[in-house]
Design brief:
The model has no long low-confidence stretch (mean pLDDT 93). The protein is globular and about 50 Å long. By secondary structure, it is mainly beta. Helices cover 4% and strands 40% of the residues. Strands 10, 11, 12, 13 and 14 form a five-stranded antiparallel sheet that branches. Strands 23-24-25-26-30 form a five-stranded antiparallel sheet, with no helix packed on it. The chain starts with a strand and ends with a strand.
């Protein structure tokens, strides 16, 4: 098993990758975009992968914004850690500072694009592949009043939204002019993730966060005309399953997701966007550690920071492993290889490893606080001996 290489660190700053729905790697492979936090103030940084130089791009001094999933932030003030998305071809980062939607490039040139309404709470944003559009999901503020719905973080918010008839909105802005070109209501929903199709910026993948019927109401597409759910009941799928962490394949042909069936068994799934039947592969019954699955260069490869259990008596509470999965979706099979360890302690959203690969699938990059401060590491993805073969129906 290979030891991980540290590629981004700082003695005084906690560094982390962007959320896994946005790459952190520049298209030329030379730089890494990261969030860094010092003295309670998060900011954006560029890391030169050759020299490992860390350059600060923004200069926030107001803490962090209250948003999903940072519920302990300040309302309408500070840097939104959940808001950052990266246009890797143009080396431009988009983020929220208070109510302002901003852009900053790798030379530190910053501009304000737009200002959001003052009665909306935000979440994870996404920039289109052509760099022309940025989508900002917002939800009516009344869903987040200071009662049990808020203090329980996520439990009860979806029910409150539905009970009060509140909305979320898919707000799309021009990255050139800052004009809001779309504001599509999503009634009775709490939307926290949005992702443009990598091949068609008129199509947006989005979610309903923590719904009671998560098995059928989590994963949705908006195609400019209609809203379509991608996972239905049937073929072993239930509305009571847990489904999460949806993301596009790089070719835009399908969406990857994962979750737990009602019997507690974990699965990873692939839903084609042409409406054909999803394929889901059940994992061994004791592989239930929380984690994320992220796409590789094509649909045959994923990487993950969770689920694998080395032995039956392995009782580590959070996953220490980074794994590569080689998939045969039509055959319903996975060849699972452990690449190395992250050993992050998962003590907060910021220390989740959130692994991503480069475009060629040569390396997997991830966050870890194994040495105290958060830093970014990488492992080569060259296949070794498989530790497990997983197939449809295994349990």
């Amino acid at each position: 098993m290979t030891m991980a290489e540290k590629v981004a660190s700082h003695n005084d700053i906690d560094l982390q990758l962007l959320y896994f729905t946005s790459t952190s790697l520049s298209a030329d492979g030379k730089s890494l975009a990261a969030i860094g936090e010092q003295d309670g103030n998060p900011n954006l940084f560029r890391i030169d992968l050759a020299t490992k130089a860390v350059t600060q791009l923004t200069h926030n001094s107001e803490g962090w914004l209250r948003s999903y999933v940072y519920f302990d932030g300040t309302p309408y003030r500070g840097f939104a850690k959940a808001s950052v998305s990266f246009d890797a071809r143009r080396n431009t980062l988009y983020y929220l500072q208070g109510r302002q939607l901003r852009a900053v490039d790798f030379d530190g040139r910053e501009r304000v694009l737009a200002e959001l309404p003052d009665d909306q709470v935000t979440a994870f944003t996404h920039v289109s592949a052509d760099g022309k559009l940025i989508c900002v999901p917002t939800t009516d503020e009344a869903a987040f009043t200071e009662d049990e719905a808020w203090t329980e973080r996520h439990k009860g918010i979806d029910a409150r939204v539905r009970r009060l008839g509140l909305n979320s909105y898919l707000r799309v802005f021009s990255t050139e002019t800052g004009e809001q070109v779309l504001c599509e209501p999503v009634p009775s929903a709490w939307v926290t993730h949005v992702q443009f199709s990598p091949t068609d910026s008129s199509v947006i993948l989005y979610n309903h966060e923590w719904p009671s019927d998560c098995g059928i109401r989590r994963v949705w597409l908006w195609d400019g005309e209609k809203h379509t759910r991608l996972r239905q009941e049937g073929e072993g799928r239930s509305r009571l399953d847990w489904t999460c962490h949806e993301m596009w394949e790089r070719d835009g042909n399908a969406v990857i997701y994962h979750g737990l069936y009602t019997d507690g068994t974990a699965y990873v799934g692939r839903a084609p966007v042409d409406g054909s039947e999803p394929i889901e592969i059940r994992l061994p019954s004791d592989w239930t550690r929380y984690g994320h699955f992220t796409v590789g260069p094509d649909e045959t490869m994923l990487v993950t920071d969770g689920y694998y259990r080395s032995t039956a008596n392995d009782e580590i509470k959070v996953s220490p492993w980074i794994s590569r999965l080689d998939l045969d979706w039509p055959g319903g099979a996975i060849r699972w290889r452990v690449l190395g360890r992250s050993d992050s302690n998962w003590d907060s959203q910021d220390s989740h490893p959130h692994p991503i690969t480069d475009a060629e699938g040569r390396f997997v990059y991830f966050t870890s606080n194994v040495e105290g401060r958060r830093a970014v590491y990488r492992l080569p993805t060259a296949p070794g001996e498989p530790v497990a073969d997983v197939s449809l129906g295994s349990a």
